[in-house]
Amino acid sequence: MTLPLRYQAIVDELRHRIRSGTYRIGERLPSEEALAAAFDVGRPTLRDALEVLQAEGLLKRRHGSGTYVTRPRPPIRYSPGDHTEQADTAAQRVVRTTLSATNIKASAELSVLLGVSPGSSVAKYRYLNREGETPHSVAHVYVPQSVAYRDLREIQVVRSPWGEDVRQLLVKAGVQVEASAQRLTARLATTEEANLLQITIRTPVLSIERVSTDATGRVVEAAHLVLRGERSEAMFTTLVPIPDEEATDDGTSDVDAD
């Protein structure tokens, strides 16, 4: 049996105390010195644990005052095809998106994902999403220039934090998306993701890779979405066709359910 890292055990215990009401919202935690002594660890280990809980939105450090329990933020919900702003009803906030775009050369990894040669020209769109001033999620969308060369400034209004506005550019270029495959992975944040989302590399993220193809199977768009995993939800809706009814010998109907 593998024992958890010492700081993770502290995270689990403090999280339990917060959720059970032992430490209430707005309450200041004991000092770092007192907590480190209570858990019999050094202050660096304790700070590692506090950083994780800060990233989860359960704690907030106030300079010169201490560390306080805060109200958890509502979950981040990813729903493909949702082009509406996501309201934070508890705090009366909405997710604000900053879009940046550039042309890049496909790396070896990206060339495999897009089915293009390494070094090929690719349009890259980055959607950085915030709740107030707090980073919430990031989406990178890639379109091979061989598929559609469009003016990167054409996206005037961002309607989706997940980069689905790029589809409009593809439609304008006469490209039709026929299928979209998505792969979800739960893992720890990379250094780049931690910097963008202002979290630590020990914070879990939900990584979603989305690859869209046309009727010929050519990849016309690929996206990489990263959400803060401790408060993320992904919802997918699938339309299930109703099976045909076939009459049996006795006049009743059978449903073929294969």
Structure description:
It is a single chain. The protein is of the alpha+beta class. The chain has 2 domains: 6-69, Winged helix-like DNA-binding domain superfamily/Winged helix DNA-binding domain (Arc Repressor Mutant, subunit A, Orthogonal Bundle), CATH 1.10.10; 76-234, Chorismate lyase-like (Chorismate lyase). The chain contains 6 helices and 13 strands. It has helices at 6-20, 32-39, 43-55, 108-114, 166-172, 191-197, and strands at residues 59-62, 66-69, 76-78, 87-88, 93-105, 121-131, 134-144, 179-188, 204-213, 219-228, 232-234, 245-247, 253-255. The strands form 4 sheets. A 7-stranded antiparallel β-sheet has the order 4-5-6-7-10-9-8, sandwiched between helices. A two-stranded antiparallel ribbon has the order 1-2. Strand 9 and strand 10 form a beta hairpin.
Roughly what fraction of the amino acids lie in strands? 25-35%
The number of strands is: 13
- Tally of contiguous helical segments: 6
Distance between the termini: 42 Å
CATH class descriptor of the largest domain: Alpha Beta
Structural class: alpha+beta
The tally of domains stands at 2
Level-2 CATH architecture of the largest domain: 3-Layer(aba) Sandwich
**Quaternary structure state of the chains depicted:** single chain
Topology order in helix (H) and strand (E) letters: HHHEEEEEHEEHEHEEEEE
- Choose one word for the global shape: elongated
Unreliable residue runs:
83-92
Give average pLDDT, whole number: 83
CATH-assigned homologous superfamily of the largest domain? Chorismate lyase-like
Helix content: 10-25%
Largest sheet, spatial ordering of strands:
4-5-6-7-10-9-8
Computed CA radius of gyration, to the nearest angstrom = 23 Å
